[in-house]
Amino acid sequence: MLRRAYSPALQVELMEDRLNPAGSVIPAGEFNWTQYSPTGELGQLLWNGGNLVYQSRVAGTWSAQTVAASGSFTAAEYNSPEAVERASQTAQLVFTTDGTPHAFFLEKSWNGAVGKYQTQIQHYARTSAGWQKIETITPNWQSQWGPNNLVAEAGTNNSIHLIFTETNAAATGVGNFGTGTLMYATNAGGSWGFDKIADTADLSQDVWFTGGRWTPRFLSLAVDSTNHAHVTYTPQFYIAGAFSTVNSTLMYATNRSGTWASQTVMAPQDSTADAGLGASVAVGPGDKIAIASYYVDRYATGSPQSSKLMYHTLTANGWTHATVTSTPDGYVAGDGARFTGFAPQLYFDASGRANIVFSDEAGEHLPVSYANEFAGQIRLATLNGSTWSLSTVFRQTDPIHNQLFFPVAATYKGQTTFAGLQATSTVDGNKNPTRTDFAVVSVNTPYGSAAPPVSNVPPVVSPPVVSLPVAQPVSSGTAAVAVTGWAVATNAGTTTTQVLVYRPDGSLAMTVKPFGDGYRGGVRIARADINGDGVADLITASGAGIGARVRVWDGATAAMIADFDPFPGYQGGLWVTAGDLNADGTPDIAIGTDLGNVPHVKVFSGRGFGELASFYAYAPGFLGGVRVAMGDLNRDGYADLVTGAGYGAGPHVAVFDGRSLALGQGPQKLASDFYMYSPTMTAGLNLTVGDVDGDGYADIIAGPGGGPAHLRIISGQALTSGQGEIDLVSTIAWTGDTSGLRVTAVDADGDGRIDVMLTPGNSTNGRIGLVTSANLLPPNPTGVQWIDTFPGLTTSVFVG
Q1: CA 352/CA 382 separation, integer angstroms
Q2: ∠ CA 212-423-59 to the nearest 5 degrees?
Q3: Which of 443, 463, 497 is the last residue of a domain?
Q4: Residues 437 and 578 grouped into a single domain
Q5: Is the peptide bond before 779 cis (omega within 30 degrees of 0)?
Q6: CA distances to 272, 582, 662 from 152, in Å
Q7: How many CB atoms lie within 10 A of CB 253?
Q8: Which strands make up the sheet holding 574-579, listed edge to edge?
């Protein structure tokens, strides 16, 4: 059923009167469901129940064609925002550069052999014979719960770019955001290739189990003139019940450097705010990258406190931020006129001006129930020079009963058409919706073409799917020999983070940029023979500023052999070590969190990288992180775990029995905790483990996070046999520097004995010190050999 109404300036059309329900028509896509083609055709992609429908504007009305049918995420009727969200976020409309409309939608199939879901992306296009299925795009992996979000964009030369998320661990309760993976696909190379962008929350979930936090836009995608992709996403959110906090971060990722790299655009100013649940990215003139987002601050109970519509631009010095507006246009509920900016869409017009289409937000705070939030008008913000002008395109006045989801705008040669999904709610005595009816609204639609358009030439069918390695960065070299002597990694700074691995003769064996050319956040490293080929492999752990990742590189070939996220949703840095915790002959990997986070330790199997142990090394209230080292201190065949407190506490050492952890008995201490240095030294503790004295027991080697370069080595045999902390070495490695000491135990020269590599904690060059085994034991270390590993480097390094 079609109803029309007119305003003095804009024509409004309402598709389907759901006040008397008859069918269900909703947008097929949170973005892009209304678009102009490069040739001027206005098209919309809709779900009508389980049928995917494409309609184009012809002779003043809509001409509709059924594309396909799907039951994976759709419903016969859509009577709740949750049902709308589940279906809308799984389909996309794309016009390629030749004007052909393409439709994509998600499906999933159960693979009983592996007990997981297979993601399927169905691809249809309009041909001279009508809408035809082109292909089923099938990634060569499965996920535990299947896909849930899809966004598509056209690239150059009729290429198509896709991003989609899959759920690995479902969010199952208040305070749990689950885990997911954000993937990228493109046919720009002639066949579909895939890449991993980042780890996310379980984005199949609605953000609130109760209340009115509806229809967030978790993901957005734009493509620049060089066919590189730009993405926004959130790595986490806090699923909330009544009277609880919320928290989300806005992230940006791009493959412009050749590999995917992420960075934070905006984080919550405290732990009770949303920064990442509604955003869109766009490419402006000169490939300028900009993002529109909403930011909602909340009380500790979860109720809205303030909100603002934000505009962010990427510059050479990072992100700039501007507030567009913080006040709705007359759309006011019980809490007054102080909410705005719901679900924005950013685009640049023909004049190069930034425009943001968004829907006002109002709040009704009910102390006996919970806070309801409502989005109810289509508004437009346009940037003229340095000033934003605001107008209301589609006005509503009843925030309790009328909402507006997924506002979009489409432009062609000066014509701008707006669209959205109007919701009309029936509420109970607490003003909570008991039923919601929906109708698609279009504003300022043109007369359209005189006859239904067709695509004269069928689209080219892609060759069979060829999957690219998931998230594989480009390394700059390959290994040539079986044994390497040591590795050095750059700290965070102004240059690309990289790791250099050296042979015992001092020649360079390989160079790896573990997180791509654009990543500068630093890396911590360890080495162990993970793949069992007799060559020490390189283990890299990311610094702060991106989703935490651990990547393992083949020591013989420099190929990446593992890539995993130890703490889903965690954006801080990591500490890493390796040792055979479970005595299965393969070294395992232990990870600790960095400054600003609870002292959480996890151990992952070197065979398959499943989790072996997870615990807090110190009180959860301590937020300085935890440093980790592994080695068999008590000579029982199991590598034990040694931890040092991070910044903000004394140099607190704890030693955990590896056998107990391996057998699932939890963290049990091998010795009493102790301070490695004076308790007043609170700059954190650097640790490594190695058998310095050759007695078969691993010893603890330490350096302070700040202060004099005090190298101290504690006998593992004495410590685990109850004799306490007996020094094998206690000396100042060098004078004139008070930035602490970073340490690692290596066989640098290949003689089968442990040497120690040292570096100042805050040096401005890449020099490291080598103390050979001959100089380690009493008389105290002498003859530090200095090696300049990074000539010209202006930041400190880590050794491994």
Answers
A1: 11
A2: 150
A3: 443
A4: no
A5: yes
A6: 31, 45, 45
A7: 22
A8: 574-579, 588-593, 600-604, 611-616
In a domain, 502, yes or no: no
Full domain range(s) for residue 599: 527-543+572-799
- H helix and E strand count, the chain: 3, 56
Sheet of 193-200, strand order:
146-154, 160-169, 179-186, 193-200
The pTM for the full model equals 0.58
Residues 165 and 297 in one domain: yes
- Taking the C-alpha atoms of residue 199 and residue 89, their distance in angstroms, rounded to an integer, is 18
Count of beta carbons in the 10 Å neighbourhood of residue 556: 20
User: What does pLDDT average to over the chain?
Assistant: 85
C-alpha closest to that of 28 among 74, 65, 76: 74
| Structure-block tokens of residue 523 | 């890396």
State the pLDDT at residue 366. Answer: 54
The answer to whether residues 768 and 793 touch, using CB atoms and an 8 Å cutoff, is no
Total number of domains in the chain: 2
Instruction: Judge whether 208 lies within some domain.
Output: yes
Residue 61 maps to which CATH number?
A: 2.130.10.150
Neighbours of 737 (CB within 10 A): 16
SS3 500: strand
Q: How far, in whole angstroms, is CA 708 from its chain's centroid?
A: 38
Locate 607 and state its tokens: 């065979």
Distance, in Å, from the CA atom of 85 to the CA atom of 90, rounded to the nearest integer, reads 9
325 close to 383: Cβ distance less than 8 angstroms: no
What's 72's DSSP letter? S
**Domain-ending residue, one of 427, 443, 459:** 443
Question: 621 lies in a domain?
Answer: yes
Tokens representing residue 156 in the block: 């150059």
Comparing CA positions, the residue from 70, 68, 72, 73 lying closest to residue 84 is 73
First-residue to last-residue Cα distance in the chain: 69
Structure confidence by residue, pLDDT tens digits, 630-660: 999 999 999 999 999 998 889 999 999 999 9
- Tell me the C-alpha distance between 53 and 69, whole Å: 9
Q: Are residues 157 and 306 in the same domain?
A: yes
Residue 299 token pair: 């009380």
Report strand pairing: 247-248 vs 273-274.
parallel
Weakest-pLDDT range from 177-186, 348-357, 665-674: 177-186
What is the C-alpha to C-alpha distance for residues 340 and 511, in angstroms, rounded to an integer?
A: 49
302, HSE (Cβ side, Cα atoms, 13 Å): 26
| 334 to 29, 244, 372: CA distances (angstroms) | 31, 20, 10
Residue at 209 is within a domain: yes
* CATH (domain of 776): 2.120.10
Closest CA to 203 of 344, 34, 73: 73
Residues 413 and 363 sit within 8 Å (Cβ to Cβ): no
Question: Residues near 484 by Cβ (< 8 Å), separated by ≥ 6?
Answer: 501, 502, 503, 504, 509, 510, 527, 535, 536, 555
Task: Name the burial class of residue 141, with classes exposed (0-12), middle (13-18) and buried (19+) by CB atoms within 10 angstroms of its CB.
Answer: middle
Q: Are residues 171 and 36 in the same domain?
A: yes
CA 225 to CA 232: how far, in whole Å?
18
Q: DSSP character for 435?
A: E
CB 625 within 8 A of CB 572: yes
Cross-strand pairs, 290:
282, 313
How far is it, in rounded angstroms, from Cα 247 to Cα 259?
Answer: 28
What is the rounded CA–CA span in Å between residue 305 and residue 296? 7
SS3 624: coil
How confident is the model over 303-329, as pLDDT tens digits? Answer: 667 889 999 999 999 999 999 999 888
